[in-house]
UniProtKB/TrEMBL annotation:
Residues of the signal peptide: none
InterPro entries from the UniProt entry: PSII_CF48-like_dom, WD40/YVTN_repeat-like_dom_sf
GO cellular component: photosystem II
Protein name, entry field: Photosystem II stability/assembly factor HCF136, chloroplastic-like
NCBIfam families, sorted: PRK13684.1
Keywords per UniProt: Photosynthesis, Photosystem II
UniProt-listed SUPFAM superfamilies: Oligoxyloglucan reducing end-specific cellobiohydrolase
GO biological process: photosynthesis
Keyword Acetylation tagged: no
Domain Photosynthesis system II assembly factor Ycf48/Hcf136-like intervals: 106-426
Name of the gene: LOC106763078
Length: 428
């Protein structure tokens, strides 16, 4: 037997009333530990308000306010309020909206993805196969390699026999794909190559005299890749990694110690390494010294890294490339700076951000105008005007983790990596 509109509305009213009863039951009543007042607000649509304009149940702000307090409200008053609420909602031909989800249950444009890894694993890089955007890999410490085939919704541990060695616990630092070809580098020195989108991986031998640890790799073409170490060595290959050619003539330490009178603060007798290194789509690099007291740049064709004094008083945390070709710069304590113009320059201007005093650790551009920044204690910031102004997304405040890497695969797929295995997926 078909239900009438009145019966449907009555059922909707009963459902909404059940939610109210549950809410009052949880928060009402007297007793210790219930001294704080609670309330919830259900916004009433304009059509409902119009049909109830003569009712005194709804206050003039067009919201139905149900308060649950201590023993000051009698059970008779609650019963009368329930009966009156049911009678009025049953006479309406539209349903009241559901209660909104709690903030801790949703991350606005991001959702947390739980991973099958041990506590304490540090996630380091993520990449997807261009020919199959649902197929990707996630790397980390403790020999962690995870694989997804549904766009990052779920992940499974992946075992690579050629990377298993009883004497080492590898830290996989970087992964990159070009077509079906992919590369992975890690520490202690290890290089993996795949020609079939990661179905099988081959280990490529490396020289024991390699200066520094490999921290970054970029697939650049067929059987071609570019590899960077934390001492500034850049190598390129065009034959699946069997031979490598040095793109710079010396390490950063050698360059700085050779040019003692370069005028770069902290350059003399420099023996440190890179703290971070980032590559632009056209092959330019920017790297931050381990102490954060200066930064370096390199462009294809240059024989040496070019050192630069930092333009701000605080030490540099990280640097990278904007979508328009300019630079962004993060300093310790939560400061964010943008370079003036789109070319390589040493002139930066600070942009106000709501970092709450926590350090901002990385920036990732989704498009020329939109970018996201992440940092300590679940900081998430968003810009929609290329970085001129930023708004804090409070939805991740309840995540007890430092978010240190933002990576957009394309304008629809993005991820944020955090310590203790925290992974956020962009919903769009």
């Amino acid at each position: 037997m078909a239900t009438t509109a009145f019966q449907q509305s009555a059922f909707a009213g009963q459902t909404a009333l059940k939610q109210v009863n549950e809410f009052v039951g949880k928060t009402g009543g007297s007793g210790k530990g219930r001294t704080n007042m609670r309330r919830t607000v259900m916004v009433v649509p304009q059509s409902i308000w119009s049909s109830l304009h003569s009712s005194r149940t709804f206050p003039r702000n067009r919201s139905l306010v149900v308060k649950a307090s201590s023993s000051s409200s009698s059970s008779d008053d609650i019963s009368r309020s329930r009966r009156r609420f049911l009678a009025e909602t049953a006479a309406i031909s539209v349903s009241l909206p559901h209660f909104p989800a709690r903030a801790e249950d949703t991350l606005s444009e991001w959702e947390r993805v739980y991973l099958p890894i041990d506590p304490g694993v540090v996630l380091l890089d993520i990449a997807f196969v261009p020919d199959d955007p649902n197929h990707g890999f996630l790397l980390g410490t403790r020999q962690t390699i995870l694989e997804t085939k549904d766009g990052g919704n779920t992940w499974a541990a992946r075992s690579i026999p050629s990377a298993e060695d009883e004497d080492f616990n590898y830290r996989f630092n970087s992964i990159s794909f070009k077509g079906k070809e992919g590369w992975i580098v890690g520490k202690p020195a290890i290089l993996l190559y795949t020609a079939d989108a990661g179905e099988s991986w081959e280990r490529i031998p490396l020289s024991a005299e390699l200066p520094g640890d490999m921290v970054y790799i970029k697939a650049t073409g067929e059987k071609s890749a570019e590899m960077v170490t934390d001492e500034g060595a850049i190598y390129v290959t065009a034959n699946r990694g069997y031979n490598w050619r040095a793109a710079v003539q010396e390490t950063v330490s050698a360059t700085l110690n050779r040019t003692v009178s370069s005028g770069i603060s902290g350059a003399s007798y420099y023996t440190g390494t890179f703290n971070t290194v980032n590559r632009s789509p056209d092959g330019r690099y920017v790297a931050v010294s381990s102490r954060g007291n200066f930064y370096l740049t390199w462009e294809p064709g240059q024989p040496f890294w070019q050192p630069h004094n930092r333009a701000v008083a605080r030490r540099i945390q990280n640097m990278g490339w904007r979508a328009d070709g300019g630079l962004w710069l993060l300093v310790r304590g939560g400061g964010l700076y943008l370079s003036k113009g789109t070319g390589l320059t040493e002139e930066f201007e600070e942009v106000p951000v709501q970092s709450r005093g926590f350090g901002i650790l990385d920036v990732g551009y989704r498009s020329t105008d939109e970018a996201w920044a992440a940092g300590g204690s679940g900081i998430l910031l968003r810009t929609t005007n290329g970085g001129k102004s930023w708004i804090r997304d409070k939805a991740a405040d309840n995540i007890a983790a430092n978010l240190y890497s933002v990576k957009f695969i394309d304008d629809k797929k993005g991820f944020v990596l955090g310590n203790d295995g925290v992974l956020l997926r962009f919903l769009g």
